[in-house]
Amino acid sequence: MAEARQGAVLLTGASSGIGRELAEIFARQGWDLVIVARRREQLNEIADRCRAQHGTTVRCIARDLTEPNAAQDLYDEITHSGAPIEVLVNNAGVAESGAFAEIPLDSHERLVQLNVAVPTSLARLFVPPMLRRRRGRVLNVASIASFQPVPSLASYAASKAYVLSLSEALGEELRGTGVTVTALCPGLTRTEMVDRAQRESPAGDWLPEFLIGDARGVAQEGYDACMKGRALVAPGLPNALGTTLVRMYPRWLVRRVGGLIGRRTL
After folding, report:
1. Which residues pair with 62 in a beta bridge?
2. What is the DSSP code string of 94-162?
């Protein structure tokens, strides 16, 4: 049964991977969409399919969220249209793999801007109207890398740890308000980002295919958890077990194991 249309979903990073699948799922469930990414052609393709197959209203906004004031400009543009955002999905993100000291400084800075600053800003802008309506949902896409340091993905893992911590803290802060916050923590998922990492990293040749999840399945679990107001979901049994176990082990052991694995990719 489709959700009643009471507003719209704002979905960043919607042009591919998990974001693309989330757009399809929300549209199928009867939600109107505001989808955001840099690539207009891909956004238009998704919008056309969602309109044709599900009869949903889709607005495409092609924007680089790393640009100055991008979050505020996006908020102003959407709110001026009059459609309230009932669900905020912070999915846009980027990964940089390799030795920390060899990754260009501007790449680190872009990662922190997109993975940390943008979801923080969008949550700060869109949560207050949800609180006034006493209903709303936030879905932040983090990662299983949120739970431990990952050499060769140092900035990425640190940024996702921030997203997880922000999500859990904000969710507790908003408990009882009608607004929920969910952190989606996928493991390796078949997306453009992972495909690129496999091509560029020496680890790509020995990474078992069974460890790489399906973007559609990950998106579905994220959607279900968001609609139920769950605080955290790590799709797939290995990921769910891994995120539980890593919190039980001493920090020094988690750090050492992560170091042994991470250094193999350099």
Report:
1. 37
2. ----S-GGGS-HHHHHHHHIIIIIHHHHHHHHHHHHHHHHT-EEEEEE--GGGGS--TTSHHHHHHHHH
pTM of the model: 0.86
User: CA of 40: how far to CAs of 1, 37, 48, 115, in Å?
Assistant: 31, 7, 12, 21
Distance CA 19, CA 165 (A): 21
4 has a pLDDT exceeding 50: no
For residue 67, pLDDT over 50 is answered with yes
Query: What is the model's pLDDT at position 83?
Result: 78
Residue 25 neighbours by CB distance under 10 Å: 16
Q: How high is the pLDDT of residue 149? A: 85
The CA distance from 88 to 217, in Å, is 20
* Residues tagged active-site: 156
Tell me the CA distances in angstroms from 93 to 21, 75, 192, 245, one per residue in order.
15, 18, 12, 26
- 152-201 pLDDT, tens digit each: 899 999 999 999 999 999 999 999 999 999 999 998 766 655 555 555 55
